[in-house]
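Run log, item B.
One chain of 123 residues. Sequence copied directly from the ordering sheet:
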Amino acid sequence: VPGGRRSREGLEHNVAVAVQYLAHWLDGSGAVALYHLMEDMATAEIARAQVWHWLHHQVRLDDGTRVDRALVEAALERGIRQWGGGLSRLHEAIEVFREVALSSRWVDFVSLAAYPRLLTVQA
């Protein structure tokens, strides 16, 4: 959006919300409190879509950094250190996020990529 702000904090927040929500969703929760807000699949969808668009269009952040795969992966790595402990399906959520946000082609819905994992019973 012309005139819109694109920040590193915004990128990292989008990654955090999408991944954490997906981990909770895969664990059976439909809505989750994250960062003092109730989030659902629509929020995860918006967050991953923005990451995909910024990456696909090689957007520059306010600090001049170009959004590329390495920058998104770095945000994921920082996030893993922050959220890892209490999310039993974190690694699956990260796989789904990578599949839809880092893909060279647009994936219609994050939930479609996640459903096969949701339907897998965890032993």
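Observations after the first pass:
- The chain has a mean pLDDT of 91.
- The radius of gyration is 14 Å.
Flagged for discussion on Thursday.
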